[in-house]
Each structure stands twice: as C-alpha cells, then as structure tokens.
Design goal:
The protein is α+β, with helices and mostly antiparallel strands. It contains two helices and six strands. It comes from Sphingosinicella rhizophila.
Length: 156
C-alpha cells in the first residue's frame, strides 16, 4: 500500500495539479495525450498513435514507448510526493509487440519507496487490449519545488 494512502489531506488537489503540470509541459504539445491520476500511486495516460510516429517499418517508434511508460510510472510515484518534483534516474523497458495506429493506454503504478527513492512500474495497452510493453523506473526526489513549476497549482 502506498505511504500515507488516503491519509493526506488535499490529495485530490495535488492530483489535479499534477495533471495540469503534465498538460503544461512543452514536450506534451507534441502528443495527443491526457494524464489522469487515478488515486495515490496510480496514473493513466491515454494517447493516440498515428503514422507520423512510425519508424521505417510502419509501427510506433521506441521513443514513444519510453516516453509514455516513463511518464505513467513517474506520475504514479509523484502522486505520493506533494512538495518536490521527482527525477527519473533509471528506466528499464521490455517491448512485447509493435503498436500500430490507434488509441493506447499507459498504466502506471507505484511499486515501492517512501522517502527519497521511488520505484514505479508501467505497461502499455494497445487498441486490441494487448500489452505492448512494460517498464520499471527509479525516481529520486529532487530539489525542485513543485510549487515553482508552471502549471502546478493545487489551489486552482
């Protein structure tokens, strides 16, 4: 069970602020995607793969797999940290099948860690409901206050 699950006041506001932070990140202007913090320690990113994201063999390029898996695991973990931005320190990923055009969901969940280092897991589910990839990331608490980041506003 996540640390302090359900005990923190303002968890919903923090979750909405993280969703706003995701929308404001310049990199996310390149993707038709949306983040939902489902609850403490769980995040979901919905996105659409189109042919503009394909490698030469006609399937989604691996950078898309990494980005969405990393983001889903990251936000699942950062949902448990209300004061600081986490940083990815390592990420391992396993490709299990190619992704073609269509909707995809990245499901992230906190796996372990309570103070400085967090471990998150994520998987990609393609339009056929099949797992296309999975990954595990390690995220470390940074010195960057969430409150200083554009788009993060738990009061708004």
């Amino acid at each position: 069970m996540p640390p302090d699950a359900g005990l923190r006041s303002g968890a919903a506001a923090h979750h909405r602020a993280l969703e706003s932070l995701y929308r404001q990140a310049p990199i996310n202007a390149l993707f038709q995607s949306s983040l939902e913090i489902v609850e403490d320690g769980q995040a979901r990113i919905r996105f659409v793969v189109d042919p503009g994201m394909f490698h030469a063999a006609g399937a989604a390029h691996g950078t898309l797999y990494f980005k969405m898996l990393d983001d889903a695991a990251f936000y699942a973990c950062n949902s448990l940290v209300t004061d600081r931005f986490l940083l990815t320190t390592a990420f391992n990923l396993l490709f299990t099948r190619p992704i073609r055009s269509g909707p995809v969901v990245a499901e992230g969940r906190w796996a372990s860690g309570k103070r400085r280092v967090f471990v998150g897991e994520a998987r990609l589910i393609d339009a056929d409901g099949e797992e296309a990839a999975r990954g595990t990331g390690t995220f470390m608490r940074s010195h960057i206050p969430l409150a200083n980041l554009p788009g993060y506003d738990p009061g708004g």
